[in-house]
Design a protein that fits this description.
The complex is a heterodimer of chains A (473) and B (392).
Chain A: H1 6-22, H2 28-43, H3 48-67, H4 71-106, H5 121-136, H6 147-154, H7 156-159, H8 173-176, H9 181-215, H10 223-254, H11 272-275, H12 281-292, H13 303-321, H14 325-344, H15 353-375, H16 381-390, H17 400-420, H18 423-431, H19 435-461
Helix pairs in contact in A: 1-2, 2-6, 3-4, 3-5, 4-5, 5-6, 9-10, 9-17, 9-19, 10-15, 10-16, 10-17, 12-13, 13-14, 14-15, 15-16, 18-19
Chain B: H1 8-26, H2 30-41, H3 47-57, H4 61-75, E1 87-88, E2 94-95, H5 104-119, E3 123-129, H6 137-143, H7 149-162, E4 166-169, H8 170-177, H9 194-212, E5 226-235, H10 238-243, H11 245-248, E6 251-258, E7 264-267, E8 273-276, E9 307-310, E10 317-321, H12 330-333, E11 339-343, H13 354-361, E12 365-371
Parallel strand pairs in B: 3-4, 3-12, 10-11, 10-12
Antiparallel strand pairs in B: 1-2, 5-6, 7-8, 7-9, 9-11
Classes of the chains: A mainly alpha (473), B alpha/beta (392).
């Protein structure tokens, strides 16, 4: 069951919402914790026991650390907790990668293990580490009741693919904002439906183009075919993951909780560094707060140390995304680009507007190449693909299949492009200037969204929806 | 502004709550919980199976499928279902696209089979059954991609021909008779029509005359000898169910039965024999236009004949190794031959000894009648047709 599946939409979500709103406010947290455990049991039944044990252990360590005043004991507890998290993640996610490296180096023949991954293990691990680290540094103040801790770690709306929210961000909207329960709920519903439509009606359809092109032997590609695959993947990944994040924000608000934004129109970025302040923001923040700054960050006299810290962050970012060399290369290339921007001061030092625009385009090009490396399995497959994008024989510039795919899927590519730029907020702002325009905007957007929801549902019923691209990490 | 009664969020929320409640209740979603938790309690949960079943039974499923079909039709998505091997041509015909194959496996198996049949003095004719296009370039023109099915077939037939295997290529017969390939097929199904089955049977009978010393009166296949019942816009083929009626429309159907009396001994799979007529090969209860086109039985399979003896014909004992095309071919061939035994090899596992079966059956001729996409099916271990050329 995923959050775009029919049994989630027609069974799990309405029933759990009904129970949640019917029970007394005092026990809502407990009920939501039960719902989250049930969700995990349904989605990843083989690992439910391990999940509960991990939850209890982490909260027990966190609570013990919170009570403890002896610094050494606190540090031991922190290290033990983090090691526990990393050991579990390492076992499930990196064992086979390790075996393949060992086999490659010493020529051994250790068998690759058939290891299934527990649901959302990478996201869970990072939340757990942030929970422990924040207790250690005193950034968070735990309440008396450990239920909130358990709920923070297990909330079903975030477990599959984030955002990697912080403990302090898990706050009840009704209690802290001047907003009614219904207003909070309806803003969540709107966001959830928007994400659902983005995922099912745009990302999943673009996946048709991407899956075909990336499954084709690229020796037969035309340059246009390669470009089409690369651009569609860049758009698909954004719409897919931001669609999921919209649904996660929506689910949080439906249950009365705030949720951080994970995307801020990343393809509008002016630099590579800026891209990561707009893309998967919760992950970037996590690496900044729990790797980069603890290593010393930028506040060091030794310049090489800054770059070493950056290198560590980007190697780890690559490894976090997947246990394969292409992810490590992907992370290293981001390190190179960000180090270049830091060293040269580009693009801040560029004053000319046309030059800024050129740099912006180069940035998008770089990000696009990076997604190819990210998507293409195998160590250097992505680089070969990029070579095909940039160089081809004259008779291989375009081919009829590419033209067919463009003519068939152009509307979805266009929709994805529109979603990637702040067109809707611009229109909304314009409409808000007069009351009739605003009423019209509200009605049109509501009717359009509901129609798209029904059509999106028809795609789910026809069995054509895919898992979330980022759920694999 | 925030409390504007037209606030889009409020509208969407109210609409969604009503929608989910109605859909949920009408789809029986309250029962899903019980199934899900009993699956989890069983220790081997298969929630995806429950999910699949739930989709099958969701309220107004056909309405949703049609809405989906309408959207795709409006947007002109011709290869949206390529993952299911379905491509819609601009004239609404649904076709498949097939990869290149060496034909080595099929060639070797066919030659080995021929050597065996030669040893026991049994004739072999390979009958190539066309698909919806006889020129692969139409796929390139329409979808910009390469299909190799006719090229694969040409290669295979040339090789077996050079090796001395007798074959007839119904693509040539099509041209000779002035038919377009699409005229032989349903638009929404990969099978050919009943009329095409009868036409193909006449060509097989011709080949039996030409190559195996039969003396079949080919006039038996003239339309004048048949009762023909036509149903208009009545059924949706297997591929059409994937794409949706709103996109490709419905197909016509023609039921054909001999206009004269027939007398058969019908042999079941256990060897039991009963008396019957041609009417026993046709289940006309399938032709029920009251049932919705998504849930009704497949009309193509209303013909069902496996093994029979035609008591009105004295000669000929044919083993027809065929595929689902021959569901509507074998019955018509049985009108011209004393005994027809029709087997589909994919229905048998490795324990089945075809060669002993042929020896025991005492057939004088084996017809291998395969649709072109059987050539190369062995390249895919997961293909349902993986074993079709395993003549052991």
């Amino acid at each position: 069951m995923t959050i775009t599946s029919l049994i989630f939409l027609l069974w799990f979500l309405p029933i759990t919402l009904a129970i949640y709103y019917l029970v007394d406010d005092k026990i809502k947290e407990i009920v939501l914790l039960g719902i989250s455990i049930a969700f995990y049991a349904i989605c990843s039944a083989d690992f439910i026991l391990q999940f509960i044990i991990a939850l209890l252990l982490i909260v027990a360590i966190g609570r013990a650390m919170n009570r403890e005043e002896n610094v050494i004991v606190r540090r031991i507890l922190l290290i033990a907790g983090i090691l526990l998290c990393i050991a579990v993640l390492g076992y499930y996610k990196y064992t086979n990668f390790g075996i393949s490296i060992i086999n490659g180096i010493i020529g051994s023949n250790f068998p690759i293990r058939d290891l299934a991954m527990p649901l959302g293990i990478s996201f869970f691990t990072f939340k757990a580490i942030s929970y422990l680290a924040d207790i250690y540094t005193g950034k968070i103040e735990l309440s008396e009741n450990p239920i909130k801790d358990l709920l923070y770690l297990s909330f079903f709306g975030h477990i599959q693919a984030g955002p990697i929210a912080r403990y302090n961000e898990m706050r009840c909207v009704w209690e802290e904002e001047a907003i009614t329960k219904f207003e909070c709920f309806s803003s969540g519903v709107f966001r959830f439906v928007l994400g659902f439509v983005k995922k099912v009606m745009v990302a999943d359809i673009l996946a048709k183009v991407v899956n075909e092109i990336f499954a084709t032997d690229f020796s037969g590609y035309s340059a246009l075919y390669a470009w089409l695959g690369a651009i569609c993947f860049s758009l698909q990944l954004f719409v897919d993951f931001s669609g999921y994040s919209d649904m996660a924000v929506g689910l949080s608000r439906m249950f009365g909780y705030a949720c951080m934004e994970n995307f801020d129109y990343p393809y509008m970025t002016e630099s590579v560094g800026g891209f990561w302040r707009r893309w998967h923001i919760s992950l970037s923040n996590w690496f900044r707060d729990y790797v980069y700054i603890p290593l010393g960050g930028s506040r060091t006299d030794k310049k090489w140390k800054i770059y070493f810290n950056l290198l560590a962050v980007w190697v780890l970012t690559g490894i976090w995304h997947g246990a394969a060399w292409n992810f490590i290369i992907w992370g290293l290339l981001y390190f190179v680009a960000i180090a270049f921007e830091r060293l040269t001061g580009i693009p801040k030092k560029i004053n000319s507007k046309p030059l800024k625009m050129v740099y912006r385009l180069l940035t998008l090009l770089f990000i696009n190449f990076e997604w190819v490396i990210f998507r293409y399995e195998g160590t250097f497959g992505g680089l070969q693909y990029i070579k095909r994008m940039l160089w081809c024989a004259p008779n291989k510039i375009a081919d009829s299949r590419s033209l067919f795919l463009i003519s068939e899927y152009w509307i979805f590519i266009l929709c994805a492009v529109i979603m990637s730029v702040p067109v809707v907020p611009f229109i909304k702002k314009k409409c808000e200037k007069n009351s009739i325009g605003f009423k019209l905007y509200n009605i049109v957007s509501a009717v359009l969204l509901m129609m798209l929801f029904v059509f999106a549902l028809s795609f789910v019923i026809s069995g054509q929806n895919n898992p979330f691209a980022y759920a694999n990490f | 502004m925030k409390k504007n009664i037209y606030a889009n969020k409020t509208l969407v929320t109210i609409a969604l709550i009503v929608f989910i409640i109605v859909m949920g209740l009408k789809s029986g979603s309250l029962l899903v919980g019980e199934k899900v938790f009993s699956e989890i309690a069983s220790g081997n949960p298969k929630v995806h199976v429950i999910e699949k079943e739930f989709i099958e039974t969701v309220h107004n499923r056909i309405g949703f499928l049609e809405a989906n079909s309408f959207v795709r039709s409006t947007l002109g998505l011709q290869d949206y279902y390529k993952n299911k091997g379905v491509y819609v041509m601009s004239d609404g015909y649904i076709v498949g696209v097939y990869p290149e194959t060496s034909t080595d496996y099929e060639y070797e198996q066919t030659l080995d089979f021929k050597a065996f049949l030669d040893d026991i003095d049994v004739n072999l004719i390979y009958v190539n059954e066309p698909i919806k296009y006889v020129d692969d370039s139409c796929i390139t023109e329409e979808f910009g991609m390469q299909s190799y099915i006719n090229a694969n077939t040409d290669k295979y037939l040339e090789r077996i021909g050079e090796a001395g295997v007798t074959y007839i290529d119904l693509r040539d017969s099509l041209k000779d008779d002035g038919y377009l390939p699409k005229e032989l097929f349903y638009r929404t199904d990969h099978h050919w029509t009943v009329s095409s089955g009868k036409w193909a049977a006449s060509k097989m009978a011709g080949a039996l005359n030409d190559y195996c010393g039969y003396n079949i009166d080919l006039a038996k296949f003239d339309d004048a000898n048949y009762e023909i019942t036509e149903y208009k816009n009545c059924w949706l083929g297997e591929q059409g169910k994937v794409v949706g009626e709103s996109y490709v429309g419905l197909d016509d159907y023609t039921c054909i039965k001999p206009a004269y009396n027939t007398d058969y001994d019908i042999i079941d799979k256990n060897g039991g024999i009963r008396k019957g007529t041609f009417d026993d090969f046709v289940d006309e209860s399938v032709y029920n236009t009251e049932i919705d086109v998504y849930n009704c039985p497949r009309w193509h399979y209303s013909y069902d004949m496996h093994h029979c003896i035609n008591n009105d014909i004295a000669n000929g004992k044919v083993l027809l190794l065929g595929d689902s095309y021959d569901v509507v071919t074998a019955p018509f061939l049985s009108l011209a031959v004393n005994e027809v035994d029709y087997l589909v090899l994919r229905e048998y596992d490795k324990s089945f000894d075809l060669r002993q079966y042929i020896i025991d059956g005492g057939y004088d001729t084996v017809l291998v009648c395969y649709a072109q996409f059987m050539i190369g099916a062995h390249d895919d271990v997961d293909s349902a047709n993986y074993r079709m050329f395993d003549f052991k």
